[in-house]
Amino acid sequence: xxxxxxxxxxxxxxxxxxxxxxxxxxxxxxxxxxxxxxxxxxxxxxxxxxxxxxxxxxxxxxxxxxxxxxxxxxxxxxxxxxxxxxxxxxxxxxxxxxxxxxxxxxxxxxxxxxxxxxxxxxxxxxxxxxxxxxxxxxxxxxxxxxxxxxxxxxxxxxxxxxxxxxxxxxxxxxxxxxxxxxxxxxxxxxxxxxxxxxxxxxxxxxxxxxxxxxxxxxxxxxxxxxxxxxxxxxxxxxxxxxxxxxxxxxxxxxxxxxxxxxxxxxxxxxxxxxxxxxxxxxxxxxxxxxxxxxxxxxxxxxxxxxxxxxxxxxxxxxxxxxxxxxxxxxxxxxxxxxxxxxxxxxxxxxxxxxxxxxxxxxxxxxxxxxxx
Length: 372
Known about the structure:
Blueprint: E1 4-6, E2 15-20, E3 23-27, E4 41-45, E5 51-56, E6 74-76, E7 87-90, E8 93-99, E9 105-108, H1 115-126, E10 131-138, E11 144-150, E12 155-161, H2 169-181, H3 187-195, E13 196-201, H4 206-211, H5 236-248, E14 252-259, E15 266-268, H6 278-294, H7 317-325, E16 328-335, H8 351-368
Parallel strand pairs: 3-5, 12-13, 12-14, 14-16
Antiparallel strand pairs: 1-4, 2-3, 4-9, 5-8, 6-9, 7-8, 10-11, 11-13, 15-16
Cofactor: Zn(2+)
Organism: Sphingomonas qomolangmaensis
């Protein structure tokens, strides 16, 4: 059979350069109107009983090429399980090999979270008792920015994900979060629902998600650099969410992401905002310490450098919300690689463990909510 490479589907991204024997040469397509690229997702068919090596020739020019060493691509034959496959990076080329038992397999930078699954999850959670759903606005392509509200307590909590659409682990995290919050038998969720109103935005960038982008929306805009001055023509997604936050206020906020290089889960805070106080920052640090104590899937030793006093970038949501509302806000980063402190040699960091981390984040929030 002739080998066929396809990325003409939700979140698909790859371009075929050529096939020579058992070697398939590929390139990742850039985000529209942007130089960002790194996310890939494609299907191979007609390869039964063959061992193929795939080479992504432009990997060295990707947005975060320094993240390729130590990375392993994901492969699936059923679009449910996404184990890692043998992968190497040298001379700017990312290579991975797979032995095909059946005709078809899918390959991706991380286990994809499709827009079909997004819509199904929103519908399923919205039908649960005590949940209300609304669209906060529309993306540039006209897709709704879904928000699920849970609980009726006085403190306003926001969880939002996939500002960067290629970071699909963020929406797996949100699915786990929503499932725990709506579990009628979960004591932690029940206590939280009494003390807070939770606003959950599972996907802030549906256009980029559908288009197979790494980091930007349909206009090529990085949404997490728009929070100081979002506009309808560049970043209506951010404008819709920030306007909704202005209406409710924000006590606690978590912006959920993925990191290309650091093989660990960590949080970044709001050091460097003009209104920083040690008392405010102590609440952020306390959350991180408690989360690390609650789960082996989180650690506090690795992470980003802190902003210098007065130098925080207010175009980023975590800094903007801490300054704008006095919120205890943070960016959660999960790895495309694995969580080195508690590795999984088969799946690496995975959808299931993203959901487990979400559960631990809610347990930790319940511990600290009375102090916020």
